[in-house]
Amino acid sequence: MKFAMGETPALKKPIAPQLAPMPSMALVFEVSQFLYREARILDEERYEEWLGMMTDDIHYWMPGIQARHRKDKTPRLDPKRMAFFDDDMLNLRRRVTRFMDPTAWAEDPPTRACHVISNIEVEMTDKPDEFKAYSAFINCRGRGEAEEFWLTGRRSDILRRSNDGTLRIASREIVITQTVLLAKNLNVFL
Questions:
Q1: Is 13 a member of any domain?
Q2: Per-residue tens of pLDDT for the chain, all 190 residues
Q3: Which among 46, 48, 34 has a CA at the least distance from the CA of 89?
Q4: Helix-strand-coil percent breakdown of the chain, rounded to 5?
Q5: CA–CA separation, 104 vs 114, rounded Å?
Q6: Is 140 exposed, middle or buried (0-12, 13-18, 19+ CB in 10 A)?
Q7: Are 123 and 130 contacting, i.e. CB atoms less than 8 angstroms apart?
Q8: What are phi and psi of 180, to 5 degrees?
Q9: Is there a contact between 154 and 137 (Cβ–Cβ < 8 Å)?
Q10: How many domains does the chain have?
Q11: Domain that holds residue 162
């Protein structure tokens, strides 16, 4: 919208954010510790244990991002468009198996990874055994002698309490900040 010289646009009125009911501090702590532990398990390449943190019906989705002008009302995240990851448990198991195979030349020598998780928010859902968790992440990967790749973004998870009382990841949506992937590969879980 363009304004003539000296014309002032109508100022937007502040509105209070719509917040879900606050979860207990114990639940926020439990979810935070779960996500921090997951990051350490990934950094230590304990991929089979990482798979054990998922539900059998997991949906692990990282859509491709397109830079669009604000006037373009096409949905930013569209499940019909390209995705870097659109995995269920079988696909995640395949990726883990490939990572751990001695013939996986792209991982020999192995990538050195560091996941940093922050900005964790927890919301209750309409299901008593499921919780929504938001987080931000930085993933730094070192390869060879001098290669270093960074991925940053946000995650939106549905965590479900299993029959044994532990949390499991039922779905994860990952939105990275890059529209063009600058790393040579995506040999990483986020």
A1: no
A2: 566 666 777 888 899 988 878 899 999 999 999 999 999 999 999 999 999 999 999 999 999 877 777 787 777 776 777 788 999 999 999 999 988 887 777 677 778 899 999 999 999 999 999 999 999 999 998 877 777 888 999 999 999 999 999 999 999 999 999 877 777 677 789 8
A3: 48
A4: 20, 35, 45
A5: 20
A6: middle
A7: no
A8: -115, 120
A9: yes
A10: 1
A11: 25-63+82-98+109-176
Complete DSSP assignment for 127-182: STTEEEEEEEEEEEEEETTTEEEEEEEEEEEEEEE-TTS-EEEEEEEEEES-SS--
Question: Has residue 171 been placed in a domain?
Answer: yes
d(CA 74, CA 71): 9
Q: Give the closest residue to 188 by CA, choosing from 115, 101, 82, 88.
A: 115
User: SS3 for 72?
Assistant: coil
